[in-house]
Amino acid sequence: MINAIIADDNKDLCMLLANELNTTKDIKVIEMLSDGSHIIQEIKRLHPQIIILDLKLPGKNGLQIIEEIENDDEIKTKVIVLSGENAYVAKLRDSRCVISYIGKGDFKEISMKIKEISHRMDKKSINQLILDYLLDLGFSTTNSGTDLMKDCIRVFLLKRKKDIKLKELIKIVSKINIIESYKVKNNIHTSTKAAWNTGNQQHIIEKLKLGATEALSPKKVITMSRYYIDID
């Protein structure tokens, strides 16, 4: 779920757009603003992933707000510019925080484009969700096998199968990373063994429902991921 702020001096557009966007599970509008004066303050308070920003705002215009976002390392919010003014948009081509430009028009068309962007952003977080899951099991980011395990889990989840042969996953990940299959296999086994030996074994046993004499295995880590990582 992506949290968003809408900043536009057209209050009717803000309301229509917010109602439309809130019908999807991909995005939630957490605030609407019609004046630019307090936008930076609200971004720092609410930490939204995106702000849908009109460039012509009273108090402080969109260009000034984007400049402040660019110059503040603590702000991670991305900007979707809502403007049909080509002259203004041209000034923002080098802005790192701006991820899209949407011209003003029918609000349903605007909302559709924003939903598409937020959906793509949300899907990018799959990697982080998988990494969080692995770190919780004791995997280390310094172990090369962890990244390969992460790829195996991502493929498994995207395939949407209840079970899948580890050999098949290894072949797919091998092609993705241009690494020999045996190296992928060895690395994920090594990282899994390290997680088991250095991690909290009782926590792992309870989380993955391991048997009394069962050690952690790559297949168990992968198949159990579907219970902890929601990619819908």
List keywords for this structure.
five-stranded parallel β-sheet; 11 helices; elongated; 2 domains; Rossmann fold; alpha/beta; 232 residues; 5 strands
What does this structure look like?
The model has no long low-confidence stretch (mean pLDDT 87). Helix 4 links the parallel strand 4 and strand 5. This protein folds into two domains: 2-124, 3-Layer(aba) Sandwich (Rossmann fold); 126-227. The chain has helices spanning 11-21, 39-46, 62-70, 86-90, 107-124, 126-136, 144-159, 166-177, 181-198, 201-208, 218-224; strands at 2-7, 27-33, 50-54, 78-82, 98-102. It starts with a strand and ends in an 8-residue tail after the last helix. Strands 2-1-3-4-5 form a five-stranded parallel sheet, sandwiched between helices. The chain has 232 residues and is an alpha/beta fold.
